[in-house]
Design brief:
heterodimer; A: elongated; B: alpha/beta; 6-stranded mixed sheet; globular
């Protein structure tokens, strides 16, 4: 499978980090090689292949584990840590309220209209309230909101740390004898762990509320039918499951983004690449974790 | 004194430093010079512990830094100040907060005392009114001076300066060089300056180590630099037209 993938993107060579060559480029066709794919796409393809190669994957797992060991230590100064934590909670939590509220309201409303469009005949109207509730609690709020936050918060974390790395600010921390990974990343991880579940609960409430408002105002459902649908067959564990997922995703988003930003090397271009990689890999890992957690908790 | 013994470092099989030995004296401006890519920055990073050498040792006043555990290295690092090429000031903090940062992290003094110390450092680099500004609001020379103020905030025994006057005009560069020299003598620090700027070397150096192809090809006092005699050193020093003309003038 890996070979097929590598053949498709034109990556050859045995060792990790081997140069990418275009399958259409013959000997001495260095210039034509650039025409096969754009430079940036070429680099991304090579990076993706490195992640998929067994050695590349092990390398990143090992480095990520070592990185987390550095991060998960006691902070140098409690007062400094608390100040940083509040700043991060403001950045990750408060400043994401708007986008989370907006998306949740519109998604709740759309789910209500789509469900109303699907039902008819023998399917009872209260199904609308039931579907909106289940969709918001089980999947939209705990999975899609973190995915959206991976884009907003993840890229922010990666670009911030990447810039600090290339401008030697992280080296300056190390020279001072400060554990830079702990100082910079631990407040972000704890802030994400504290704020993202709160945002998800808010999203659930807003989505269901918006669904109800749209359902009633467009006449597809009455308040009583919607409320009945919301209450029917309610299992409180669904909310627990959603919050467990959210906490895991919050840690993945913050740590994977920080990992990519922290290990940036080069200049402005690499900071941009790290930011993109942070979002892509955070989303991919969130999706894999979503599948595994759903099977473990509901399967 | 900082002593480097038989230091070797390679990256991906390519040897960058080979059995480098050097001594950097206290109260002196010890310059490491060399062409770009000669290994001088790697040597400095090995000395301060940002790179781990494969062989050799670094002794800070007899204390073997390379053999120390994390805790021991941390203690030594509290005695190190470093001025980075791009100043490396924290963007999100004001100038005063930047200078106070190491004090806040490690000093047990009160906030007022830390502020007083930071203000003293800013006054020492002639920036007493810049405390409330952000680094982005300062010129390159001012940023370097704030970097120096932050580096000396903890009263370090060892000061490292990586290309302290890169990107600065010749007059500002001389101001920065003289400031580092004054502070070195005033506080008796062991100062190591990495540079490839010959103006700076001639202006401020006491001792010079010339790095060439991963080894110390020449070292001596700055007065003997122009008559060093090493072909690579001569080539490096007299690379510019101005220096060649100077050589012609000095020749009997």
């Amino acid at each position: 499978m890996l070979r097929v993938f590598e053949a498709r993107i034109g990556v050859t060579g045995g060792a990790m980090g081997a140069a990418a060559t275009c399958p259409r480029a013959g000997p001495g066709e260095g210039r034509e090689q650039k025409n096969c794919l754009s430079d940036s796409l070429w680099v991304h393809a090579r990076e993706v292949s490195l992640y998929l190669r067994p050695m590349g994957l092990f390398f990143h797992i090992g480095r990520y584990t070592a990185f987390l060991r550095q991060v998960l230590r006691r902070p140098e100064r409690g007062s400094v840590f608390r100040k940083l934590l509040l700043e991060e909670m403001n950045g990750i939590g408060l400043q994401s309220l708007g986008i989370v509220a907006l998306l949740s309201v519109f998604m709740g409303a759309v789910i209500c209209i789509q469900t109303a469009h699907q039902i008819g005949g023998w399917i009872p109207v209260y199904t609308i309230g039931f579907t909106v509730r289940q969709t918001m609690i089980l999947e939209f709020s705990p999975t899609l909101i973190p995915v959206i936050l991976a884009g907003k918060v993840g890229s922010n974390i990666a670009s911030q740390l990447g810039t600090m790395r290339v401008t030697e600010q992280i080296d300056a921390l190390e020279i001072m004898g400060i554990n830079s990974a702990n100082y910079l990343v631990l407040p972000k991880m704890i802030a994400a762990l504290a704020c993202i579940p709160f945002l998800v609960i808010l999203s659930m409430g807003l989505g269901i509320g918006a669904g109800m408002w749209v359902g009633v105002s467009t006449g597809v459902s009455s308040v009583a039918d919607f409320e009945y649908g919301m209450r029917i067959d309610f299992n409180a564990f669904d909310v627990t499951y959603a919050l467990i997922k959210t906490c895991v995703f919050a840690l993945i988003i913050s740590s994977v983004s920080a990992y990519h930003g922290y290990h940036t090397s080069g200049g402005a271009l690499e900071v941009g690449r790290s930011s993109t990689k942070a979002v892509v890999y955070a989303v991919v890992i969130v999706m894999i974790a979503n599948l595994l957690l759903t099977q473990m908790l509901l399967g | 004194m900082i002593e480097v013994k038989d230091l070797s470092k390679s990256f991906g099989g390519q040897s960058v430093l080979r059995d480098v030995s050097a001594r950097f004296l206290p109260g002196k401006m010890n310059f490491i010079i060399g062409r770009s890519g000669s290994g001088k920055s790697v040597l400095t990073k090995c000395i301060v512990g940002l790179h781990h050498p494969e062989r050799g040792s670094v002794l800070y006043d007899g204390r073997d830094f390379t053999a120390m555990d994390h805790k021991g290295k941390k203690e030594i690092r509290k005695e190190i100040g470093m001025l980075f090429q791009g100043s490396a000031l924290f963007d999100s903090m004001t100038v005063l907060e930047n200078v106070m940062f190491p004090l806040r992290m490690f000093s047990d003094e009160s906030l007022d005392q830390n502020r007083e110390r930071a203000m003293f450092c800013l006054e020492r680099v002639e920036l007493p009114d810049a405390g409330d500004k952000f680094p982005s609001e300062l010129s390159g020379g001012m940023q370097k001076r704030v970097g120096i103020a932050r580096a000396i905030a903890m009263n370090p025994r060892y000061l490292f300066c990586d290309e302290p006057n890169s990107g600065l005009d010749p007059q500002t560069a001389i101001v920065i060089d003289n400031l580092i020299g004054d502070l070195t003598r005033e506080f008796g620090m062991t100062t190591v300056v990495v540079s490839h700027d010959m103006n700076s070397v001639m202006e401020a150096s006491d001792n010079v180590h010339f790095v060439h192809e991963g080894t110390i090809a020449w070292h001596g006092e700055s007065e003997t630099l122009l008559s060093g005699g090493h072909p690579a050193l001569d080539e490096f020093i007299f690379a510019s037209k101005l220096m060649r003309q100077l050589r012609q003038t000095l020749r009997p």
